[in-house]
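Encoded backbone
================
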Amino acid sequence: MNIKKQLAIGVVAAALGLSLIGGGTFAYFSDSEATNNTFSAGTLDLTAEPTTVIDVDNIKPGDSMVRDFQLENNGSLDINKVTLETDYTVNDAEGDNTDDFGNHILVEFLYNADQLNEVIYETTLAELRDMTPEAVNEEVFIPALGEDGLEAGTSDDLVVQFSFVSNGEDQNQFQGDSLNLEWTFVAEQTTGENN
């Protein structure tokens, strides 16, 4: 080996030795701490009591029935808004209907059962079925429940009057018919918050 190579190897070995010695002379303190964190989602739990709002037989044009029911928030989160989806089927006993029975059932959402003249909103079942859930919320639930919706652990009473409207004309096509109404109440949470 020539002298230049030996000298270069010596310089590299010396530099490596110095770096090991220098690296070993530095010391520092350290500490660590682990945290345990939890994310627990809240719940929305809307119930309607009773589950059957109306069940009547032998109605005739001109009859009206007042029913009240309660919406309860049994969840841990506040409900911002409640929407209502309406659907129904008509069982035509004679097969002679030329009109939708739902056009002849008037629905009036009331402020309370004692003062039937205080109507929040009125419409026919047929029109209610065609309304968007958001429109029903604006017309019915905001006036009934208020802008704040339904807080966790609270309930609110709602009153509705159903009427088989007498139109002063022949309504014989509805004799023996039945209408099966399904209301689906949908709860939506309040807006998320920065905590």
Q: What stands out?
A: The chain is about 20% helix and 30% strand. The mean pLDDT is 85. Residues 8 and 74 are 82 Å apart (CA to CA). The longest strand covers residues 79-91.
